[in-house]
């Protein structure tokens, strides 16, 4: 899986790129099942909304075989290597639930704001790459992106410890308004299996989900090895300190794993 020059140019210009249906139905079904089973576990890596619904499950690539494979998948790793021109390690891995009826807001923010302030990441050379596990629609709390805002650099942010169960360095309304005047807002939508990559400084957020449709998304944050973090303040399961370069697995590794699990169950 290689990005075309046009895709790379689009990414640099807009700050994001959507790759529809990069994973097939068998791969998606496996990941959905495994995500739901992780949400049902009570472990420190699974964070809940204030109302108890799952919000995010961290570091599943370290304790779940399906997500271990996804975390080293060539369809995700190779495009980011192409953009950064070097090998990558996993800075963060999370499965965000945005549960039906109860999934809460993610306030406007830039991810690099948090990686820099909380983790001591030197430069915005880490990429968020998200894999849709459910269909993402305009109505079930899709990610809202402000195109071109990655060019605004590292913006002033305030530490919001109140709004949700997850502390976040968030942007004020005037800053968001100014950037939206220039770039507008897009909400990339698509079937489960689609992949959205976006720049660490791209301004984004999402609203709550009051529909019956869940919106699970896995996020890999792939950091250039030379840009590893230097001052971690968050637990290891949120900001990893293993900077070993990722060696991609075979392209069909998820399908093979799905089949071997099925055989074992028969
Ligand atoms: C994030 O910005 O880190 C998550 C947003 C979302 O899942 O809607
Ligand atoms: Mn974010």
Describe what you observe in this structure:
There is one protein chain. The strands form 3 sheets. The protein has a 7-stranded antiparallel sheet with strand order 1-10-6-12-4-3-2. The protein has a 3-stranded antiparallel sheet with strand order 5-11-7, with no helix packed on it. The chain has a two-stranded antiparallel sheet with strand order 8-9. The protein has 7 helices and 12 strands. By secondary structure, the protein is α+β, with helices and mostly antiparallel strands. Helix 3 (65-71) runs antiparallel to helix 7 (253-265). The mean pLDDT is 95. It is globular, with a radius of gyration of 17 Å. The protein has a single domain (5-265), classed as q2cbj1_9rhob like domain (Jelly Rolls), CATH 2.60.120. The longest helix is centred in the first third of the chain and has 15 residues, at 25-39. The structure holds succinic acid (SIN) and manganese (II) ion (MN).
Note the main attributes of this structure.
7 helices; binds succinic acid; Jelly Rolls; binds manganese (II) ion; 266 residues; alpha+beta
Low-confidence stretches: none
**Which descriptor suits the 3D outline?**
globular
CATH superfamily descriptor? q2cbj1_9rhob like domain
Strand order of the largest sheet: 1-10-6-12-4-3-2
Which whole number gives the mean pLDDT?
Answer: 95
Number of DSSP-assigned strands: 12
The helix tally amounts to 7
Classify the beta-strand content into a percent band.
15-25%
Helix fraction, binned, reads: 25-40%
CATH class: Mainly Beta
- How many discrete domains? 1
Largest sheet: 7 strands, antiparallel
